[in-house]
Amino acid sequence: MSQLDLRELQSTEFPVPDELQGNLAITSLSRVYNWSRRSSMWPLLFGLACCAIEMIGTAASRFDLSRFGMEVMRGSPRQSDLMIISGTVTKKMVVPIVRLYNQMPEPKYVMAMGACASGGGPFKEGYNVVSGIDKYLPVDVYVPGCPPTPQALLYGLIALQKKIDGQSLANMDDVPWYGVGPSEPTPVPVLGPDIIDPRQMDLIRRQAEMAAQGQQFAVRELPALPAKRATPKKASSKAAAVEAQAADAADDPGNAERMERRLEALARKRARDAAKAGEAS
Q1: Cα–Cα distance between 160 and 82 in angstroms, integer?
Q2: Is residue 244 part of a domain?
Q3: pLDDT per residue over 114-126, tens digit each?
């Protein structure tokens, strides 16, 4: 507490004299609560792929993650409040990830680090890769990159701290863990021929019943193709080509004036050619 700067907690319309700035703070309960959480977040220590190397480098002395109070990476989800998804999320690994998230105490936050955790990355079309962890967990901050640099991860942590600073104890949407009633755990995905989200089990069951009865349960509607205009295969002259372009542009009101000027110019050219032919004869 000897290094605490009380000026960071000043959030009131009542000014504090300069001589008391270091000893007195007039603030709100939400401000103190958010300051204590943002300054002592403990990330869950686990990695998935190459982004984990950058996360480990961020915790080294060169970048000094301890400046934000996050240097204590815990090996147990029971003692963590920040999950950093660092790397490619496979369909096999998303099951323990969701289980670890459910074991973390509230308040808890999720950060998607890298392109793979955010949307699948270069392996998005792979048969065994999840196209983004946000399909199964609520993500608070996305850190782009493949992989992100330690500076990018630090910026993501600062963005998370700003999000925490904006929360209010008076708004239950900001702090749902203080709401009435128990909080429902996130359903753990089920592995099968393909990964199944338990939140869609009712829809999957209805479709399976309709398929067993021989009914059509899903119809894919293709967009209507524009009608093709019949065009001559080969124009006999430049005049015929211009007339064909005029016919194609007849449906577009914006081109009507331009095509009219071109036809007038073509008519004048024909008249000049006819006059020259008469003089030559």
Answers
A1: 10
A2: yes
A3: 999 998 888 887 7
